Amino acid sequence: MDFKLLQELNEERANRRAAILITDTASGKQRLVRHADSLSGDPLADELAKRFRSGKSGMVETEDGRELFLTVSVPPRRLVIIGAVHISQALVPMAEIAGFDVTVIDPRTAFATPDRFPERFLKADWPEDALKDVPLDAFTALVAVTHDPKIDDFPLKTALEAGCFYVGALGSRKTHGKRLDRLKEAGVSDEALSRIDAPIGLDIGAASPAEIAVAVLGSVIKALRKGPEGG
């Protein structure tokens, strides 16, 4: 393996950035494609996009018969939940089973307690402070479920700016309309606002907190595996 490419790949890994090392199995030639790179014009664009979503390495054959091995490196997926509410209590164990690194953020000490959530998941701070230790990125999903603009709005804006692969918020259409007005006044573009999944979760008729948690996790996984076109 080219030592310079190895250094570059390790640098991407260390900074929670995805990359794919492409190796021509016949010639040994290699190139590195970063998640932030434009795939426009790349003959492997569709395949690379799929691999970034799946995180799976493997062999592909090009139209001219060459065999390439794609070594895919993606950071562990995170789920950041704003609000230590009943929905979050159901969502945390399900998301962990699904393979997400989970963090629950809530400054309200009546909700953010160790008897409601294992301490390894919990940050009982305002999002402005907690997110300094859990920086948002393209491999993070954020769900806001407090119903409190003072708590939800900052992380929603931050998640959109960071390019989180999923951003969702709890609330009725009326509540969400007011939320959009506030975020727009804060400088968020209409294009970015359109990325917020609200009312949150898959439309499965969920009623109880546990059912809503199922719907939310379903939306998160759909966005992860199918990308924007899947939604």
From TrEMBL:
XdhC Rossmann domain boundaries: 79-218
Signal peptide range in chain numbering: none
InterPro entries (UniProt xref): MoCofactor_Util/Proc, XdhC_Rossmann_dom
Record protein name field: XdhC family protein
Domain of life where this protein originates: Bacteria
Organism: Stappia sediminis
Pfam families: XdhC_C
